[in-house]
Write a structure and sequence with these properties.
Number of strands: 21
Strand content: 35-45%
CATH class of the largest domain: Alpha Beta
CATH topology of the largest domain: Fumarylacetoacetate hydrolase, domain 2
Order of helices and strands: HEEEEEEHEEEEEEEHEEEEHEEEE
CATH architecture of the largest domain: Alpha-Beta Complex
Helix content: 10-25%
Structural class: alpha+beta
Distance between the termini: 79 Å
Length: 285
């Protein structure tokens, strides 16, 4: 082999290895948080039937443990470890109608205890009368963010997942704050998987009420895009790994009742499904 040919072969192999490494780094991974045998764990959703357990939260360096569990044997939890849950309101033109868009994104807070997982019940409180769905896309923060620019946001977002900003419209209208209207227990379903390396500027969102499509949009129609929402939020509060941001719902929403099922599909990411159940008799919830 001539020296030039040897160098060319070496460089070709090096470039191929670099490409393979970069491709692997950019591959989408579906992380799930779940409960099995009384213990809470994180894992990688390998396929529709199998989860590979990892040693901790994925943004904190959780590694495969070699243990696998069956999807049928777990209870899905919200794929986050939120200290803060922030939500954007009135963020699709289809949702605000003829109203003039705001000059900056309108934000409100939900509580971490509002979060729940895929296939877990949405509890219809005993004194609620007008409970609506809101199909949305959530982002989960993977790196501490304080006063970051829009250009820096992608380095701080760990992944995306479908979510549902469940809302009691009468409480939302009548109460001083949206304390119970938006943040009651189970009013923040999300999951099943938190998916990495997703281009969240080009996602399709679909909401289905009892199997019928009732909401449909794409993220390029957001009034304030995800980079703007995260950057703006970080001006005022420090976002920490595991925190959650809801990004807004499209179109017109309608009431759900106990027995209904609502699905949120983010094409290429996954489908969240939850059934509405009445609060147990004799409770104040």
């Amino acid at each position: 082999m001539t020296p030039n040919r040897g160098i060319a072969s070496f460089l070709g192999a090096a470039l191929l290895a670099a490409w393979a490494t970069n491709a692997a780094a950019q591959a989408q991974v579906k992380y799930v948080k779940y409960e099995a045998a009384g213990a809470t764990s994180w894992g990688i959703l390998e396929n529709d039937t199998t989860i590979q357990a990892i040693s901790g939260a994925p943004w904190a360096g959780g590694k495969p443990t070699g243990r696998r569990v069956k999807v049928a044997e777990v209870r899905f939890l919200a794929p986050a470890e939120a200290k803060k849950v922030i939500a954007a309101g009135l963020n699709y033109k289809s949702h605000i109608g003829q109203a003039t868009p705001a000059k900056y994104v309108g934000l409100f807070a939900k509580f971490p205890t509002s979060l729940t997982g895929h296939d877990q019940p949405i509890v219809y409180p005993a004194d609620a009368t007008n409970l609506h769905y809101e199909a949305e896309i959530c982002v989960v923060i993977g790196k501490k963010a304080s006063n970051i620019t829009e250009a820096q946001v992608k380095d701080h977002v760990f992944g995306v997942t479908p979510c549902n900003d469940v809302s009691e419209r009468n409480w939302q209208r009548d109460d001083l704050q949206w304390f119970r209207a938006k943040a009651a227990d189970t009013f923040g379903p999300m999951g099943p998987a938190l998916v990495t390396n997703v281009d969240y500027t080009k996602l399709k969102l679909i909401g289905r009420h009892n199997g019928q499509v009732v909401q449909e949009t794409t993220t390029d129609l957001l009034i304030f895009d995800i980079d703007n929402i995260v950057s703006y939020t970080s001006r005022y509060i420090t976002l920490e790994p595991g925190d959650v941001i809801f990004t807004g719902t499209p179109g017109t929403t309608h009431a759900m009742k106990p027995g209904d099922t609502f699905e949120v599909e983010v094409v290429g990411v996954g489908t969240l499904r939850n059934k509405v159940v009445a609060a147990p008799r004799g409770t104040n919830q």
